[in-house]
């Protein structure tokens, strides 16, 4: 497949195009850098899209133009190195889902400079590897005085994310944190509890289908900016934190509530009568299934 250069094309989606292959530049493939105004690209379950594109770290020719601001890639096993995105330093939104062969090899930390939203799931340890690299290299490779502007983050590795270097990096702007389908985490260590407190501007915290999680963070009440907590399909959580929830909380969405949790919620509502409580994820401010899940399952 060859992508035509265009001075007007801004939004492009490939969906379920199995067998569609991106042709290398030497064969006329890619998008012509000097002519493209492409801003948004989605590649959804094409599966062989990158199978002919060279994935070496030393490659200096890239498949997509630097004008790209939003990239969404779902279920693409042919994508094996994040080096193919190294020129995308204008990205504000990046979603990499179920790209299980994708590695951090060749990662350019500059692609995160303008990121506002990042979703990485089903890519082994990629999310943590990327953020760890940025945290360790920001003094050397990123602009002087760089402060992360990342506001929304979705990952599937609670344990890997809750370390001091990463949370210090995220602290200045992060207001929404979603843990999606973590199948390993059972409980929080004291160190992880401490590190979570670094996210002082966090307003929305989501645990979605974390099947093994048995408890919420005990220090949750100290997140003084938290307004919304969603705990969905985490059936092993049988009680709320001993110290309750933040007084700032205005919305709680939680299903699979035990009798003990119901009793604790009633107690919390007596001191916070404005707290809205629901067990329905999809009707409380969500008019449809979350985009990350619509194609995922």
From TrEMBL:
SUPFAM superfamilies: L domain-like
Full protein name: Uncharacterized protein
Native species: Triticum turgidum subsp. durum (Durum wheat)
């Amino acid at each position: 497949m060859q992508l035509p250069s265009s001075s007007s094309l801004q939004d492009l989606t490939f969906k379920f195009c199995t067998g569609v292959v991106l042709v290398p530049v030497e064969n006329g493939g890619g998008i012509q850098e000097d002519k493209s105004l492409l801003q948004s690209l989605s590649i959804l379950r094409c599966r062989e899209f990158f199978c002919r594109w060279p994935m070496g770290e030393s490659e200096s020719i890239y498949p997509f133009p630097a004008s790209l601001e939003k990239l969404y890639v779902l279920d693409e096993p042919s994508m094996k190195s994040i080096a193919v995105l190294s020129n995308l330093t204008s990205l504000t939104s990046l979603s990499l889902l179920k790209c299980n062969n994708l590695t951090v090899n060749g990662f350019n930390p500059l692609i995160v400079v303008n990121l506002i939203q990042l979703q990485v799931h089903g890519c082994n340890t990629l999310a943590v590897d990327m953020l760890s690299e940025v945290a360790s290299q920001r003094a050397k490779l990123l602009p002087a005085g760089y402060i992360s502007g990342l506001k929304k983050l979705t990952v599937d590795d609670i344990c890997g994310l809750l370390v001091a270097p990463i949370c210090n990096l995220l602290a200045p702007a992060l207001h929404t944190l979603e843990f999606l389908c973590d199948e390993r985490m059972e409980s929080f260590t004291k160190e992880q509890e401490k590190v979570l407190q670094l996210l002082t501007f966090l307003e929305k915290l989501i645990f979605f289908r974390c099947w093994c999680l048995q408890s919420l963070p005990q220090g949750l009440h100290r997140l003084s900016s938290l307004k919304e907590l969603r705990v969905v399909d985490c059936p092993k959580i049988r009680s709320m934190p001993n110290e309750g929830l933040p007084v700032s909380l205005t919305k709680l969405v939680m299903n699979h509530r035990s009798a003990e949790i119901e009793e604790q919620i009633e107690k919390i509502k007596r001191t916070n009568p404005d707290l809205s409580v629901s067990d329905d994820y999809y009707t409380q401010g969500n008019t449809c299934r979350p985009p990350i899940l619509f194609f995922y399952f």
